[in-house]
Automatic annotation (TrEMBL):
<feature type="transmembrane region" description="Helical">
    <location>
        <begin position="69"/>
        <end position="91"/>
    </location>
</feature>
<feature type="transmembrane region" description="Helical">
    <location>
        <begin position="285"/>
        <end position="305"/>
    </location>
</feature>
<dbReference type="InterPro" id="IPR017452">
    <property type="entry name" value="GPCR_Rhodpsn_7TM"/>
</dbReference>
<keyword id="KW-1003">Cell membrane</keyword>
<feature type="transmembrane region" description="Helical">
    <location>
        <begin position="111"/>
        <end position="128"/>
    </location>
</feature>
<dbReference type="GO" id="GO:0001594">
    <property type="term" value="F:trace-amine receptor activity"/>
</dbReference>
<protein>
    <recommendedName>
        <fullName>G-protein coupled receptors family 1 profile domain-containing protein</fullName>
    </recommendedName>
</protein>
<keyword id="KW-0812">Transmembrane</keyword>
<feature type="transmembrane region" description="Helical">
    <location>
        <begin position="33"/>
        <end position="57"/>
    </location>
</feature>
<keyword id="KW-1133">Transmembrane helix</keyword>
<dbReference type="InterPro" id="IPR050569">
    <property type="entry name" value="TAAR"/>
</dbReference>
<feature type="domain" description="G-protein coupled receptors family 1 profile">
    <location>
        <begin position="49"/>
        <end position="301"/>
    </location>
</feature>
<keyword id="KW-0472">Membrane</keyword>
<keyword id="KW-0807">Transducer</keyword>
<keyword id="KW-0675">Receptor</keyword>
<keyword id="KW-1015">Disulfide bond</keyword>
<keyword id="KW-0325">Glycoprotein</keyword>
Length: 319
């Protein structure tokens, strides 16, 4: 009895004044510090890196192209992840508590789904742009203009918003989970759950189908590029070389996106079908692995994208 009382005294609650409060995560001071440091570093890289990409595209005229309009919008999406989504998620992960109310919980979850969906839509647009540039180079400048790129961006933002906010605010994603939600609900909780139907549909619509399309497009790109190399021989055409390098860089962006988000979307399908038995620690790891994708993209641009490397090096040499 004394042991039970002692354990009860050691528990800390998100809202101590409420009997319905969730229990705080108790990870220890050292682990809390390490997690906050890791998340702060991830947010810093995400915010600074994507800000550099945005400012570079806006500042350097040589970067004003349809492809870079799409990359600019993708960088803005990643920047919003670092500024709006990651800070609140970091606090929830470390403390195990949501301190900001049910309304902001729903808004935050919707933003999370919205920005993730928007990222994949941008990557599809970029893949289409590169496919046209390399597979139909004679018609590319006529088909993919700045206006077309802006239209692709606007359509991506609109479709992602309708899907994410429509799904979560209609509560279609938790239909049939009312009993389960009631059993785990407490003051200070904020869960993003999908029933078996929407766990599959969301993963297919927002990840697996777009990724399949992009893999097919990039496969076609590299087959055609290889044929160009065979015909030209010594690759004397600098334009084809530049286009191939750009396509290779953007395929790395796609590969990193798949690596970061596939485990999460696989779990989104499996978890509802197995009664939501994914361990909390594993879920947080998968969740943050996806977030850190937003920090990887600007690093890839800086290291591998020829136009960005040239512009940034020119800027630093001038300075």
């Amino acid at each position: 009895m004394m042991t039970g009382d002692f354990c009860q005294e050691q528990l800390q609650y998100c809202f101590p004044s409420s009997n319905a409060s969730c229990i705080k995560a108790q990870l220890g001071v050292g682990i809390n510090f390490a997690l906050y440091l890791l998340f702060a570093l991830g947010m810093l890289v995400t915010i600074l890196g994507n800000s550099v990409v945005i400012m570079s595209i806006c500042h350097f005229k040589q970067l004003h192209s349809p492809t870079n309009v799409l990359i600019l919008s993708l960088a803005l999406v990643d920047l919003l992840v670092g500024v709006i989504v990651m800070p609140f998620s970091a606090i929830r992960t470390v403390t195990g508590c949501w301190f900001y109310g049910e309304d902001f919980c729903l808004l935050h979850s919707s933003l999370d789904v919205f920005l993730t969906t928007l990222s994949i839509f941008h990557l599809v647009c970029i893949a289409v742009d590169r496919q046209q540039a390399i597979c139909n180079p004679l018609h590319y400048s006529r088909r993919i203009t700045m206006s077309v790129a802006v239209m692709m961006v606007c359509i991506s933002w609109a479709l992602a918003a309708v899907f994410s906010y429509g799904l979560l605010y209609s509560k279609a994603n938790i239909a049939g989970l009312e009993d389960y939600m009631a059993s785990i609900n407490c003051l200070g909780s904020c869960y993003l759950l999908f029933n078996p139907l929407w766990g599959i549909l969301d993963s297919v619509i927002c990840f697996f189908f777009p990724c399949t399309v992009m893999v097919c497009l990039y496969t076609q790109i590299f087959v055609v590029a290889k044929e160009h190399v065979r015909k030209i021989g010594d690759m004397s055409n600098w334009l084809i070389r530049a286009e191939c390098k750009a396509a290779r860089t953007l395929s790395i962006v796609l590969g990193v996106f798949i690596f970061c988000w596939m485990p999460f979307f696989m779990n989104s399908i499996i978890d509802p079908l197995t009664g939501f038995h994914t361990p909390g620690l594993l879920f947080e790891v998968l969740y943050w692995l996806g977030f850190f994708n937003s920090a990887c993209n600007p690093i890839i641009y800086a290291l591998f994208y020829p136009s960005f490397k040239k512009s940034l090096l020119t800027k630093f040499v001038v300075v």
